Amino acid sequence: MECGPGPVAAAVIADSATSAGRLATGWEQRMDEVERPHRLAFMRFVAALPNPVRPMFMFFTGGKLHLVDRALEYLSGQNVVLIGSTLSDEEMSWLGERHPFPLCNIPICVDGHTAWEFLFDACEMDFAWVDSDCFVFDASLPRALFAAIEADPQRIAVAGTFVFRPVELISTPFAAVNVKVLREIRDQVCPITPGPYAYVPTSLPRTVPHAVSRRVTPVMREAMGRVVALDQRGRPADPQEGILDAYGDGSMWPATWRDSDRIPPAARASGRLHPVLDTLVPYQLVAIGLGFSVSPVLRIGNYLGLEGVQGTSRVLHVGGVASYSELPPGAAASEQAGFVGHRMRRAREVDRSLLTRLVARGAPAAYRERLTRLGAQDGAVEERERAAVIEELASAGITGFL
């Protein structure tokens, strides 16, 4: 089952209160109604975990076993919990045989933003998150994330290895959350979620049909205004990594690119509409505005702002590998030039290399069929791209990964 993006909302929908007391648009209410039974089932799953101490969650959709398999090789011995969306019976059986970690398969299409929201509702313990395209080479890093929180449990809201700038925030590929701080904010200030927020109804940056970004509330705006400058409409005024700009053609680009030639001409001509605050960014801005802080264990730059790999010999995030194939048809072909094309070609080559590796290890039939289709591509081009990726990884001290 393919999970594809939903429509972009064009009109403002009036706010109304949800049963949770959260100010929400009608679209938010509809999203919550679709997800509610699966959220409750996930909460029961988390409550019954055999080892609830410092769990590390990894989310992935069907068709991504080649990423998960490689990522889990570096996490043996860790308290990993797997969250799947629309996994096939064959995929679940394969995982159970090779990586017998607890697994919750959500039977509807959800994205990573939804998985984050489910975790905020379900977890009564500190927890970590690792993307399925994030590879933790250093086995001491998971413990280091939790240790950063435990060093100041009254104050540290989030710890992680990848950062956004200029206001230093933790990016999501590998991060840990202090649930004590989370509960204090939700109980005493506002019932904020970790998901993306916007100022008008929009499905950006969601990748499933029923999902939308949540609306920024006045309480959130007041807290965020103590951290970042706001314009006269109460929106972030200055470029900040982790904040995305929506354009009139339906595309979305990092706010830090506004004055660069990385914005495609068609998007620039269509006009910049409004900002979207990506996952965990609004939560951290609110937390910092309330006097809490974040703790970077490492300070690895955001891949959206760098033309190299996002990582070191300790941890690697190859941005786009877990999501690039979910883009609308034709999107990849339209972005083959410049930085975006570079990033997507790198993602495609890592995806193909890990898929080849999985098939050699005995993959489900769908993965073998996909590799056969890819095998029809130009072998010389494939080899050049692979060599370029290996060289790029080596420049960051990473060898033997592909």
State the oligomer: single chain
Assign the CATH architecture of the largest domain: Alpha-Beta Complex
How big is the Rg?
20 Å
Residue runs with pLDDT of under 50 for 5 or more positions = 4-23, 304-308, 326-339
Instruction: Let me know the largest β-sheet.
Output: 8 strands, mixed
Count of β-strands: 18
Strand content: 15-25%
- Class of the largest domain in CATH? Alpha Beta
Fill in the CATH topology of the largest domain: Spore Coat Polysaccharide Biosynthesis Protein SpsA, Chain A
How far from one another are the termini? 28 Å
- The geometry reads as globular
The number of helical segments is 13
Mean pLDDT: 86
Question: Which percent bin holds the helix content?
Answer: 25-40%
Total of domains: 2
- Structural class from helices and strands? alpha/beta
Short description:
This protein has 402 residues and is of the alpha/beta class. The chain has helices spanning 26-47, 65-73, 89-98, 112-122, 141-150, 179-188, 218-224, 265-270, 281-289, 331-334, 338-360, 365-374, 379-395, and strands at residues 16-17, 23-24, 56-61, 80-85, 103-106, 127-130, 134-136, 156-164, 169-170, 174-177, 197-198, 214-215, 243-247, 252-254, 272-277, 293-300, 310-311, 315-317.
